[in-house]
Each structure stands twice: as structure tokens, then as C-alpha cells.
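re the bet — no i am not wrong, look at it urself. input seq straight from the record:
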Amino acid sequence: MYQFLLLIHVACFALWMGAVAASMLVVRTFEPRLTTNAGDVTTDAALLRAYIRHEVKFVDVVFAGVLISGIVLAQLYTGWTPWVLTKIGLFVAQFVATMAYIQAFIRPLTYPCPLSLYRRWYGLFAVSLGFFAITLTVVFFGR
């Protein structure tokens, strides 16, 4: 059972990180179309919003999978060590930082927008991928 829970935990974390990377590619693909008046900006903006809505639903599921499987692993197998609490703290901090960044910098965007404003998306990915890097560093080198 321990191996199965660990597999679920690692797979959910990988899927979460992969979803962020995929979103970065989607945002990069839409950049030239949403920063100029060329083309059908309304349709492209609707496509980006639809993708992000689906991505958020997916990430909600895998984020819950990471937390639930981590809590079960800690409760039944590893115990509530400082490393477990650190990882939980990092996940919660990543969630809060991501939501705060979205609220402050992404939601106010309207399309088309200047490239300088559109690049706020990359700041969001920097926050997420930065937390992933910190978490992986703690997991692999912190014990």
C-alpha cells in the first residue's frame, strides 16, 4: 500500500508540474495573437480562457491528490516529520502565491494588450516553477 500511495503522490506532483509547463507553452503560443490587433483577438482570448478553465479544474484534482496522498503517507507510514511539514508548507505557500499573483496581475488583463502586460503570464510561471524547484530541492537534498 505504501508503494501505491507514493506512486499516486509522485504522479500527481508530476502531473501538476506538467500542467504548468503545458500552460506556459499555450500562453507562449497565443502571445503574438493576443498582443496585436491582427487576427480574431476575441476568439483567441476565449480559447485561452477556456484552456485555463480546464487546466485549473485538472490542477485542482492533482493538487488535492498531492495533499491527500501526502497526508495519508505521513499519517500511516512516515510520520509527521519536519520534512513532511516543510513540504506541506511549500505546497500551501505555492498555492497562496499563485492565487495572489493571478488575482493581482492576470485577472486584470484584457486582450489585446501590450506585450509588456502580457508578459505578466511569465511571472506567474516563474512563481510556480520556482516553488516546484524549491520543493524538489527540499525533497531530494533536504533529508
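see?? The mean pLDDT is 93. told u. also The helical segments are 2-34, 41-78, 82-106, 115-118, 120-141. so pay up
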